[in-house]
Amino acid sequence: MNPTYDFTGQVALVTGAASGMGLSTARAFADAGAAVILADRDITALQKIAGAMEADGRRVLGVECDVTDEAAAAVRSSVDAFGRLDMAFNNAGIQVPPCDAADEPAEIFDRVNAVNLRGVWACMKHELAQMRIQGNGAIVNCSSLGGLVGIPGRAAYHASKHGVIGLTSSAALEYAPRGIRINAVCPGTIATPMVTNMIDSGELDLAAAVADQPIDRLGEPEEIAAAVLWLCSPGASFVVGVALPVDGGYTAR
């Protein structure tokens, strides 16, 4: 059983909230009483999700957001709608097919880093500007097991995810004295629509992915949500600048 949290009166922002880990985390924040800004490029999906959550009595707002174009609009929307911003999960990210490092097109490298690294930087920048005014807050950036290890054929993706960890640790040191905690979560292979697409396209072998995780299964989006909520909670009040593996033991080998 997961711990329960009371985030009543607090406001959370989740990027990449239309599916997968982002959606599970947004729902978990809402279930814990927080008002939630759901940010994603897919505004149609967000409107359906937000409508369903509102029908269940949750306080939510769907905001169209492309993190490659600085995410100030999403933060402004949270402040305009709910008056503050207490927690954020910078989750939006993309994956690309594996490629020999000598053959990687520059435009692919740039696109992956624009979303996975620069997008996290842009979101965090504007979240910190609001939290700095408040004097408190908690931010969780989404890295990956790919931020902790290397895998052949994944140089661009892993570069972006390693960068998220460097960004997280440096900003965490800067803002811890100001009452703002910043950490990263490093998911293993999780049963999300993105991973399903990779399996269906032949880009990822399901049996091999399971075998690589000593727990002998894929992770569930709700398990990442549980880690994010803990990092944002008072239970993690002394946790600053960590890159937390939630990977079924992949990086423990």
Automatic annotation (TrEMBL):
Q: Does the keyword Oxidoreductase apply?
A: yes
Which InterPro entries does UniProt cross-reference here?
NAD(P)-bd_dom_sf (IPR036291), SDR_fam (IPR002347)
Any matching Pfam family: adh_short_C2
Keywords of this protein's UniProt record, alphabetized? Oxidoreductase
Q: Which GO terms describe its molecular function?
A: oxidoreductase activity
Keyword Oxidoreductase belongs to the record: yes
Similarity annotation: Belongs to the short-chain dehydrogenases/reductases (SDR) family.
Protein name (database record): Oxidoreductase
